[in-house]
Amino acid sequence: MEHDAMPAPHAKAPTDPRELDCLYKEADRIYYGFARRCGLSTCAYWMMYDIERGEGSIALRSLTDSWAFSKQTINSAIKSLEAKGLIELAFEEGSRKNKVASFTDEGRAFAARYIVPAQQAERRAFCALPPEDRIALLALAREYTQALAAEFERTEFAAGE
Fold it and tell me: How far apart are CA 159 and CA 88, in angstroms?
């Protein structure tokens, strides 16, 4: 994607979020392409990512709570990772219902080869921004996401009337 120069401070503020939508889609495309090169679906990639962040083990309920994927999509991704021998499932200690996904030895090797370098690349890209820009980016993204959620909630109620 081509990057335009930053607009002049006196430039008219945009009112159409289309460019922001395109940037989000471009980021999704980057992750999708990387996941495919690793031999994973996007959802399976993110599950491996979270398991790595959890130091090799994570409760399945944490995965379903932290992603916008449907439970069915997550379950399908987990089953595919299990079938590839990258993870194993076990019940949480003291539970007969809640399960934990953990890396197998093959999963640890896979994560070391693909997931950890991707996380490091992500960190390098983020830290390439000056500290004040990182702070501003997160604050603005959080504020926009909250405003978007509020607007969609209002829209849902208006549509239901």
Answer: 44
pTM of the prediction? 0.82
Alpha-carbon distance of 72 to 141, in angstroms, equals 28
Query: What b/e string do you get for 116-151 counting C-beta neighbours within 10 Å, with b at 16 or more?
Result: eebeeeeeeeeeeeeeeeeeeeeeeeeeeeeeeeee
Long-range contact pairs involving 51-58 (C-beta distance under 8 Å, separation at least 24): 51/87, 51/101, 51/102, 51/103, 51/107, 51/111, 52/103, 52/111, 52/115, 52/116, 52/119, 53/119, 56/102, 56/103, 56/107, 56/108, 56/111, 57/100, 57/101, 57/102, 57/103, 58/100, 58/101
Tokens linked to 41: 């679906």
pLDDT (tens digit, 9 = 90+) per residue, 78-95?
999 999 999 999 998 888
The rounded distance, in Å, linking the Cα atoms of 135 and 95 is 40
Query: Are 73 and 47 spatial neighbours (Cβ–Cβ below 8 Å)?
Result: no
Q: What is the pLDDT of residues 117-133, one digit of tens each?
A: 999 999 999 999 999 99
